[in-house]
């Protein structure tokens, strides 16, 4: 008789939520009505857009380290030792989770941190993922504030924009809470905070948890942090030489200047670069561009340049922020540029943002875009600019801080000052026209020439999304530069509504406050009013609506009695938005009514529609649902009269919410469906997502789960097209839950497999594991046990802690059912062995062993004894390697039974006797009794009747002592048969 596993799960229907959260992070995909009320009624009624999944500055995953990274072996080893998981159990307390790298500009801190972080991620040490934030500690656009960085981190960790608080304290608290959730789920995250200015900028972002790790780079030693400190020094000449040699070999493997024969010369060249990687790469770029140039020529030029710089600088520096080595390298590179390249290089430093598109560079230079792209490619080859990509795949260009500083210095030389002013004016004009084109497209205006317009609303909104940081930076620059304030006013008046979606709330409040101050001191009355309204909208969308109400009331009270009625109406609309955000619904409704009356009198139908929209939302907030529906229906009709399908889509969206609250389900869902169609026609995928999200949520609440799942799947497809795999996976979880409620298990399986592929690409091990566990549970509920085995094994492989234990229990149940399979044993065997092959990991040896044990038993039943013996032998070895002797004994017992059937009696006796010894050592008397019985069977089959009788009597006596008299009696019968010469195993019903 064989021994079975002690783990079991009865076949049947799994109750409860089998569709687990894919991501260990907090899931937001299933929330109905993901549009915050305060964001639904902006002045232009622009639908709030879903936040881009990776705001600029925050990157899920890691940017690639420089391709030419080499050296730094000691520092890399220290960093990897710090990042390597050292815990031996869940309660282990690791050391300080923060390491701060400090060193001068250009020394290679970021490259070192990214190289080590990339190695750690590749090793699978951070199941919760890795995120990167550039804090711009020394950038031209100003430092990233802690709250803004926290918001970027939360979005990169998968939270939707609607779930990221806007208040500074709230967003920092949310980050700490989210990191704690991930920590408890044993999903450590690696956070790289690059280019920090000081400890105060990073301290609020640090996790107070056990398993996360943080790498910080800064030009200053952050000694006040509770962190390990690593000083990144300049490279030794030999190490610097390897950087140059590697760069030369990457370009031309046969380049003799990178060979050992010229090693000493390369070392001299590296020494002249001061051991700074940035200078080394610039010099290497000069050499790569001219493969015939001797190293000695460049050494002479570089030596002369250094001597001149040191003579000119009493402190030995070559300019602010640069040493003579770096400055000399830049000088040589700059001297090799032609006039057009040098001009582009100088004026690029005028741009205040973190990166820029080729179109913006073309505006700075006054040259065509196609020519500008060629210019940028040449500058990139010289290592003077860096090429990158936005999360949406668009090409961007940036400069290292030191390079930017050098370019700015060059641009401030007397002969180039005029070109700098001209470039700034062209840049601001470029952004002002683009901003006007956005508003023209969104509001169907006709105030922009056709050649300057966007081709679609979707293109216009996408441009704002990608350029929002640069737009805000340019507006700040314009406000700071006398004579350019008008450009800032243009940007804000045209894009304030859109910027609310993308810019940090507090940063936008600061920008609009500064604009308001400038307008108050020098602008006309209309501009002052527009800046006031923009500031009010910014406050309303930063969870500070009471402040907005206060300043807007003051503006209303101070309005000139002779002011144009439309100006007063604008204040009323803004007050309506702010009052609604503050929960003052009746006051909000009253302001909107006044605005509607004014716009009706002066014949401004589009603005009247905005006010109608705000009134309907205020009435909905007040619980006056019938009135809200009536107002929103009027708004929809007004949009149709205007022939504005895009505005109608927004009005239908709000009508759908109002109809649902009024209990008119069918009309509500019809409104959302129509809104989605119109958003699609306008090319606004974000609007589609909002309409479908509410449609799905309401359908789910109404119990129409299959339709709800279809809506969620449509959103997932949109997010897939937008290149947002994390958002797609979250939404798939919502679709899966609806399919689960509909008991559409085949649909759940398909969803899980799609999500698992996404999460694997995101390196979300825990999320992928949960997706496979959910697939296995759905297959179990379909009674497709063989198909469930491999997904369940994948879940066991990927998960940790309690989640892994749940997957192990499910796998044990699958194994138990498959072990009893009679109709399709070959399929069951294949499934068990495929799952076992997947779990070939030392810490999972026990689970692999049980799978092979079950497969071995099934193989023996199928008459495939040789294969059975092989699998049972492997199971016994696996249990032994894991130190699980009782499990090893179980497999050995089963192996002994199989070997007896193969007439390999000596091997059978040996296996069973080892099991017998294990049982006796462990005090396992039931196991000992069964082993004695099986040993007796083997001895009898081998013709050793006397030994079989004696062993069988021991088994019968032990069963009797255990009060298992029925088993004892069956053994006594078999003992009698041994004595009479009956064949072993000839009777059924043997003890188990």
Automatic annotation (TrEMBL):
It holds the Pfam family TPR_12. Gene3D superfamilies: P-loop containing nucleotide triphosphate hydrolases (3.40.50.300), Tetratricopeptide repeat domain (1.25.40.10), Winged helix-like DNA-binding domain superfamily/Winged helix DNA-binding domain (1.10.10.10). This is Orc1-like AAA ATPase domain-containing protein. SMART domains: TPR. Residues 69-196 form the Orc1-like AAA ATPase domain. The lineage of its organism: Bacteria, Bacillati, Actinomycetota, Actinomycetes, Kitasatosporales. It comes from the Bacteria. InterPro entries: AAA_16 (IPR041664), P-loop_NTPase (IPR027417), TPR-like_helical_dom_sf (IPR011990), TPR_rpt (IPR019734), WH-like_DNA-bd_sf (IPR036388). PANTHER family: HTH-TYPE TRANSCRIPTIONAL REGULATOR RV0890C-RELATED, REGULATOR-RELATED.
